[in-house]
Write a structure and sequence with these properties.
homodimer; about 550 residues; alpha/beta; Rossmann fold; 3 domains; six-stranded mixed beta sheet; 19 helices; about 10% strand
């Protein structure tokens, strides 16, 4: 059955009419918030989190139409088909089973008839045993020193999720263990990492599904040279996380261990696979990683089972569609009021923008509507002293606030500035900002007036433990795919990164020619020629 | 003479017509780039940097109209008036003399008749002497240990510029010296900083012009309690950077030193004042800080003297206006192909979005046109594996690429993946991305097609030394104010942050009441009441 374009759905037309109605002054958020029971009507708890969308520019009729859209698109059904192993990544002919990576029950998950859970469990068990042996000092570097520095060599989906989670859970790190990320091919990334490590105590975790990712291979090569220069045996300081049978899984190139990735888990959805599992288990211990899996699995189940009205990631996805396609906002801010969640915006930026920054639907038609917004953010309260001027008085954009009820540090509560703890001060700001954005302030001299009517949601988590970090990761994954299901796009491919790669390969060959003393190719475009000459020592003021 | 609204200027109407023309297929960037001499015509060197806008969606007629706009707005004249000490921050009745902070010549700069340079030079000399004494071990903590950990306590403009520059120049850090930032009122920020420092060897640098900034005062109080608990004398472990006569400059509260800030330098423009000077001189040595000043001064002079056609920050500002107001892009990406510049997007995000996220012009009129775009970014090539899918095939937005000709690390050049060095690989990608975005690829199956016509600029710097970091900082400052001059807005005030602060103060008082066992105020809005109860241990599923 061919997929309809979203604009042909009855709910889409209804939402267009509602969006026009919402422009009226009676639907300004200042007015909407005067209604009794606003919070009760527009908030929901589930999957271990709490989601408050009372300051979104919605009324019951809008939510009803959005739920109609969810039903006309069969969003929950689509999610279940994804979870059950259907080939939902149609352009690449693959399933999308990141949810299987965190299943801790015994239910089989079949891809084309074959249960994939035994191999998933086997990898998890391999991670547990390996991490335990490293922590016990049974596996050491080639000079016998226990591993203390873990360097993740990987880019994009091979590190952003783990980098987020590791930063979020830094207090849970095993004593003395340090985690570093070597993602960028920029040699400064390598130079700074090697300046910070003890080479004899360093384990390099090279992560690439194909084991051909240029940046990762270039950095792995640097690492290998570095180890040899230090008199260390690379085979005893390296593990790989890669697809079965890739060049990183070749017995001819021995490593301490090779952990398998599967073609049914995409990079940006892979933090609960070995991609996150190996670094996080080494850094935090396997048990913390499993707690993270547990939280993610709980949210997966919620996403697959809760009715639309109570389904957090589905609600959040519908609000993205409402804000993007009907109210016309081009961007969304993610503002965690929690320093440990500082790298969440960068992770979600990748997860969501790489998944939903598409122009073609599953039928190969160019879409008549815009898709994923630009996503950016910094932690609050810092963001208030940075770009919130623009949020309040410049170009409006929706914001997703995140609050944490219980901080990890409370012994500091004796030192109270203005009779409140730092954590209370943080919350006073969290709560104040969403209200200030919504209601504004129509009085005062022009430069002191606030238009208001700026939408936001607030997501609450009980604490910053691994379970909640897992719930949060799964919330954003599920929300991303729900959005894609509405638009009818494939959130699992990324053909948009290919053209730049192909062109870079051409320039790389030209540079290799230049290195070998051969002339630059005649068909090189003149702008590229200028940059390559400048890099080779040419002066930019003599173009 | 009252300021005209920009839309009434002749150039504005001409640009509107040109924008319509640029929509035609003959003005697709793929076609524009076929013109011989495109790079030569649309690039310029100056102020020590190189700026290539050949892949912006412009033709000579567009540039001519933009230069007319520059002339009709007297942009260079406005910049000179700012530099000369005129009261350009009219809502607050202040000059905007961040450029004076880096003047190394003997020219007087007068504000209301008074030369401010002697006091600027005195602060610089005080920084030099203090940093030298710390490095020589003549100034130590209360137990006699030399200072090794510098903790900057400050938020927004009081840390983002220094955090960017310190990260950019980390290789130049004095051996053993470590710099930490305590910006967020979130107690996790404090908890993690104190876990990373040696208390006896720690110098706290508390930065706040008014010395009343809530986050900074709350964190300074935490620091004071922490020092006392460790048996240290806060007076011997603290310096302040603050306005003369503020509570941080009170002899009754002794500190090792108080460095003055001036009302004519705004927070987000303050990295070349004591705000950046104290932390950077302690971390890198005063000489590096002065090199940074030298680079900034060079770019200031360029901005004040170069004709529009050769003026880098002015050109960049005109292109922001063109992209924002005429081509309709709501956001801009800043993508430095250099890991050390990783915090540049966050710094420029504050600098530009807080300056130009405004809706009211200098005459107090609501603007008929949009102002500053959303600014975000991550380093390349990492960004390619994150949100570049959306850049290529989703929602288009202009990008500013930044390239560095000479890397700091070259001994790694022996390890060549595919016959190129890591730095060459980085450049192959830098050069390829801007071309891929511009020309696209019209062939292939729908999901493999690229529309192209996505604009970008490329800014080059020779290396990552302090002089170039100074040039870069000044480039973005000058560009920001040039943009504001076009729109006729005040880039130096930030009334948009006030409403949230006022509301947070109300909630803070409610929380203090709750702490003291008093009931929450009756007039508290129900949503705030829910959050305050949840924070106090209430259950979110029982609202």
């Amino acid at each position: 059955m061919p997929l309809d374009s979203p604009i042909t759905l009855p709910a889409w037309a209804a939402l267009n009419d509602l969006a026009a109605r919402m422009q009226g002054p009676e639907h300004h958020l200042r007015r909407l918030l005067e209604a009794p029971g606003r919070l009760e009507a527009f908030s929901v708890a589930g999957g271990g989190l709490f989601y408050d969308y009372s300051r979104q520019r919605v009324i019951p009729a809008v939510m009803d139409a959005l739920f109609d859209l969810a039903s006309q698109r069969d969003l929950v059904g689509s999610f279940r088909r994804m979870v059950s192993g259907e080939i939902v990544n149609t352009t690449e002919g693959r399933a999308a089973l990141h949810t299987a990576a965190r299943r801790l029950d015994q239910t089989p998950v079949r891809v084309s008839g074959r249960d994939v859970m035994p191999e998933i469990r086997a990898v998890r068990e391999q991670i547990r045993e390996f991490a335990t042996a490293v922590h016990a000092g049974r596996i050491t570097g080639s000079t016998g020193k226990p591993f203390r520095d873990i360097v993740v060599v990987g880019i994009g989906g091979s590190y952003l999720g783990a980098a987020f989670a590791a930063h979020a859970l830094a207090e849970d790190a095993r004593p003395g263990m340090r985690l570093h990320f070597l993602a960028n091919v920029d040699i400064h990334n390598f130079g700074r990492v090697v300046a910070a490590i003890d080479p004899e105590a360093t384990l390099w975790v090279v992560i690439s599904k194909s084991y051909t990712t240029t940046e990762t291979m270039a950095n792995a090569l640097q690492a290998e040279h570095f180890m040899r220069a230090k008199g260390l045996d690379p085979a005893r300081h390296t593990v790989t996380v890669t697809a079965k049978g890739s060049p990183g899984d070749d017995p001819a190139r021995p490593v301490l261990a090779a952990f398998h990735m599967f073609d049914f888990i995409g990079g940006r959805y892979s933090v609960t696979s070995a991609v996150g599992g190996v670094p996080l288990s080494l850094y935090l211990g396997y048990e913390r990683f499993e707690a993270l899996l547990m939280g993610a699995a709980e949210m997966d189940q919620h996403a697959a089972e809760a009715p639309a009205e109570e389904n957090l990631p589905l609600l959040a996805a519908l609000l993205t569609v409402w804000n993007t396609n009907f109210l016309g906002y081009p961007a969304m801010g993610i503002i965690p009021y929690a320093e440990p969640l500082a790298r969440l915006p960068a992770h979600v930026q990748q997860l969501n923008m790489e998944s939903n920054g598409k122009s073609v639907d599953l039928e190969g038609r160019f879409l008549a509507v815009s898709t994923g917004p630009i996503i950016f953010g910094e932690p609050g309260t810092c963001a208030q002293h940075s770009f919130f001027q623009l949020a309040h008085q410049g170009r409006p954009f929706p914001i997703e606030f995140i609050g944490v009820v219980q901080p990890r540090y409370s012994m500091q509560d004796k030192a109270r500035h203005k009779d409140v703890t730092n954590h209370q001060e943080l919350w006073a700001n969290l709560v104040a900002q969403s209200r200030a954005l919504a209601v504004g302030k129509p009085e005062g001299t022009p430069e002191r007036r606030f238009e208001g009517n700026r939408p936001s949601s607030t997501l609450l988590m009980e604490d910053l433990g691994a379970i909640n970090v897992g719930r949060l990761l799964s919330f954003y994954e599920a929300r991303t795919v729900f959005e894609a299901f509405v638009w009818g796009i494939n959130p699992f491919d990324q053909f948009g990164v290919e053209l730049g790669k192909t062109m870079a390969a051409g320039l790389r060959r030209a540079l290799a020619d230049q290195n070998a003393g051969r002339p630059l190719p005649d068909d090189l475009d003149p702008i590229a020629r200028f940059y390559l000459r400048t890099l080779a020592g040419g002066r930019w003021d003599q173009i």
